[in-house]
């Protein structure tokens, strides 16, 4: 990429950053409401962040480096104070691994050899930091692969799975007539997420785990894990599974049939409490060749100090991950840059516009604007933050996250899924009313959206948190649009075909008034929390409320 083009882009970025300096007024001591979020800087940031110049903002890639540099430059120009000592960066140590050509996975069962073609039948990677891994292990079907003491559920009970390759279902046990609320009923819990299952396999001492994909159970098509595993996979530095990944439902059926098992019957057995692991009388043989590298990635964070002498020691966090899937020279498609305009150029840009508004009008509590890295790799940046927080978690009032925002138009309501877990729901209701909005009706979280964005790592660490207005993120298009509701809802739902695809690109024709509205609601909510006498509290009985911060 020519240096002159990059210099020109940075000049444009500097002009964007100069806007708040021109507009800024003297700080108010204790504002009653949040200042206005402006569309012009939001659109300018979004257009730049989703440009080919940033190469898809990939983790461990040059585009990611440019993004971090852009964000810290903007934070300084806007007037945010450094959150990480003298700077805006929080270092996150990652290990990057990409499965190389020549890797293979086959199964032996019933005298048959079944080859699993990478990308078509299976996707997998090594997560232990080894350049070459050879695995020969017996296969064990472990149902959902869940150990949940509070649900009195243990799919590993009575079995020693050490050194074995687990095969598990995605999602979690479904509700029954006698237990309609087990595992949160129809909603997907943390136990149903692939990240939990990979971690649990490691805790159990297994050699690794393969998840059986179905679109219904995963809430997304095979193309999503296939695209993800075609890129470099990252994890925090430390131990990991020798093999982890997914197999297609067709491959699972072939494998189970060759092993003398009926997949559907085993699935049905796995729905019953008291299920025990089933040895498949089959083995897996894998040779995984990996390109391995150590990567230093960065969260970016800036602060607007609070005005109250006591309450300024507590903070509200606004978060939005800056990363996407990057650039893929091996993709073979005409466009090999995964721009990620909506996911999550939108949230990244919105946070910059919100910070620009906030710096001149501080609240009683401190406000932190946080752009985590490596969300697409399994919420790694936010996990690293909660393990080494820049602000004490015990004095963190809430995390309000933005991910994949409304690009269609203004709405009459606002989605707050997850707010019902804490007193943030009532505060959200008050903020919505003041804006002339209602709250979108609560619906079962069938896809586990609450566990798929950075706020969850804060919730897991005991901080009340949720993803604001996530109809785009969940793909349900449930906003009540002001203009042409049917067509607008259809456009929102259509984003599912662009999710994690190269087609997620910025369109200058987008009506960003709904995105500004969503950002304004989030900032208003943050100010309501920041100016309140007390911090939010978890709802009685909420599991994350029992976590000691």
List keywords for this structure.
21% strand, single chain, two-stranded antiparallel sheet, alpha/beta, 549 residues, 15 helices, 30% helix
Concise account of the structure shown:
By secondary structure, the protein is α/β, with parallel strands linked by helices. It has helices at residues 3-23, 39-49, 62-78, 194-203, 215-218, 223-230, 249-258, 263-270, 341-358, 380-387, 424-434, 455-460, 471-474, 485-493, 513-531; strands at residues 81-82, 89-99, 104-109, 112-115, 122-125, 132-141, 147-148, 153-154, 165-169, 208-212, 233-236, 243-247, 278-304, 315-319, 326-327, 337-338, 366-371, 396-401, 413-414, 438-439, 465-467. α1 packs antiparallel against α2 (39-49) and α11 (424-434) crosses α15.
Structure description:
- The chain is of the alpha/beta class.
- The protein is 30% helix and 21% strand.
- It contains 15 helices and 21 strands.
- The protein has helices at 3-23, 39-49, 62-78, 194-203, 215-218, 223-230, 249-258, 263-270, 341-358, 380-387, 424-434, 455-460, 471-474, 485-493, 513-531; strands spanning 81-82, 89-99, 104-109, 112-115, 122-125, 132-141, 147-148, 153-154, 165-169, 208-212, 233-236, 243-247, 278-304, 315-319, 326-327, 337-338, 366-371, 396-401, 413-414, 438-439, 465-467.
- It has a 15-stranded mixed beta sheet that branches. A two-stranded antiparallel ribbon has the order 7-8.
- Strand 7 (147-148) and strand 8 form a beta hairpin.
- Helix 2 (39-49) packs across helix 9 (341-358).
- It is globular.
- Mean pLDDT is 90; it is low at 1-32 and 472-477.
């Amino acid at each position: 990429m020519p240096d002159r083009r990059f210099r020109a882009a940075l000049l444009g970025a500097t002009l964007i950053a100069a806007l708040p300096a021109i507009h800024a007024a003297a700080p108010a001591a204790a504002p009653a409401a949040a200042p206005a979020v402006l569309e012009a800087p939001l659109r300018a940031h979004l257009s730049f962040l989703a440009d080919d110049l940033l190469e898809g903002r990939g983790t461990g890639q040059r585009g990611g480096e440019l993004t971090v540099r852009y964000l810290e430059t903007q934070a300084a120009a806007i007037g945010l104070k450094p959150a990480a000592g003298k700077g805006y960066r929080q270092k996150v140590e990652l290990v990057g691994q990409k499965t190389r050509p020549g890797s293979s996975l086959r199964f032996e069962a019933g005298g048959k050899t079944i080859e699993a073609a990478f990308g078509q039948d299976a996707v997998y990677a090594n997560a232990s930091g080894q350049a070459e891994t050879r695995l020969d292990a017996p296969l064990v079907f472990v149902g959902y692969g869940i150990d949940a003491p509070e649900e009195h559920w243990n799919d590993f009970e009575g079995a020693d799975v050490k050194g074995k390759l687990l095969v598990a279902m995605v999602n979690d046990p479904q509700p029954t007539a006698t237990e309609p609320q087990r595992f949160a009923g129809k909603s997907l819990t943390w136990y149903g997420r692939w990240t939990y299952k990979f971690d649990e396999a490691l805790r159990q001492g297994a050699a690794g785990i393969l998840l059986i994909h179905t679109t219904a159970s995963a809430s997304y098509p095979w193309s999503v894990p296939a695209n993800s595993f075609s890129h470099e996979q990252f994890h925090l530095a430390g131990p990991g599974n020798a093999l982890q990944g997914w197999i297609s439902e067709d491959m699972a059926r072939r494998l189970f049939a060759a092993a003398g098992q009926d997949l559907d019957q085993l699935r049905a057995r796995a729905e019953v409490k008291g299920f025990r692991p089933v040895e498949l009388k089959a083995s897996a043989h894998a040779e995984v060749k990996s390109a391995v590298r150590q990567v230093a990635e960065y969260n970016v964070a800036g602060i607007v100090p609070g005005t109250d002498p006591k309450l300024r020691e507590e903070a509200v966090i606004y978060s939005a991950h800056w990363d996407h899937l990057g650039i893929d020279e091996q993709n073979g498609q005409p466009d090999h840059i995964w721009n990620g305009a909506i996911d999550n150029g939108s949230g990244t840009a919105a946070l910059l516009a919100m910070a620009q508004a906030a710096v001149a009008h501080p609240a009683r509590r401190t406000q932190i604007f946080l752009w985590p890295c490596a969300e697409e790799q399994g919420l790694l940046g936010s996990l690293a933050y909660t393990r080494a927080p820049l602000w004490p978690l015990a004095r963190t009032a809430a995390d309000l996250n933005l991910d994949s925002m409304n690009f269609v138009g203004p709405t009459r309501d606002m989605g707050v899924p997850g707010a019902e877990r804490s007193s943030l729901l009532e505060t959200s209701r008050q903020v919505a009313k003041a804006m002339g909005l209602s709250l979108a009706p609560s619906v079962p979280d069938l896809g586990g959206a609450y566990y798929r964005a950075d706020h969850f790592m804060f919730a897991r660490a005991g901080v009340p948190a949720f993803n604001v207005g996530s109809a785009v993120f969940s793909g349900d298009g449930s906003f009540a649009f002001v203009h042409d509701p049917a067509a607008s809802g259809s456009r929102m739902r259509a984003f599912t075909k662009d999710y994690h695809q190269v087609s997620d690109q910025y369109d200058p024709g987008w009506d960003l008034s709904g995105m500004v509205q969503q950002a304004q609601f989030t900032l208003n909510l943050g100010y309501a929390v920041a100016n309140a006498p007390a911090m939010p509290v978890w709802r009685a009985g909420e599991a994350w409320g029992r976590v000691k911060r």
